[in-house]
Amino acid sequence: MAAGEKGQQIDLGSLSTQQLSQVKKQLDDEVQHLSNSYQNLRAAQQKFRDCVLTIKQGVAESVRDKPLLVPLTSSLYVPGKLSDTSHVVVDVGTGFYVEKTTEDAQKFYNGKVEELGTNIKELENIVNGKANNLRVVEEVLRQKVLAGPQGGQGGGEGG
Hints:
Prefoldin_subunit_alpha, two-stranded antiparallel ribbon, unfolded protein binding, elongated, alpha+beta, Subunit of tubulin prefoldin
C-alpha cells in the first residue's frame, strides 16, 4: 500500500505493470521537481546568510570613505565610497527597497533565513515521503516483472 496524493490508499498489487510504470514515472517527476525546489530554497537561504555577513563585514566603520565598486547591474559597476555605515537599503521583494538600520537589516535577513529553514524542513519531509512511496512502487513493479506475464498486463486474473 502507498499513500496517494490526497491521503487515499492504493493497493499497488492490484495495478498492472503498465499502471505501476505510470505511477513510478509520476513519482519520479514529483521527487525531481521537489528536489529542485529544495535546492532553490537552500540557495536562497544561503543568499540571505551572505547578506547578513556582508552587512557585518562590508558596512563596518573600518570601510567608511574607502573606495568600493557599486553594482548598477549584474555586470556593470561604478566607483563609490561608503559614507553611512549605520543604514542600508534592503530589497524587501517585488522590486521594493526600504532603508533600514544595519541592525534591523540583519534582523530582517535572519528572519528570512529562519523562515526558509522551516520551509526547507517541511519540504524535506514531503520529499522523503514521496521517495519512500517511489521505493515501494519500484519494489512492487520489480516483483510483478519477475513474476512474469501472469502478474501484470491483464490486471485481475493472475494475482
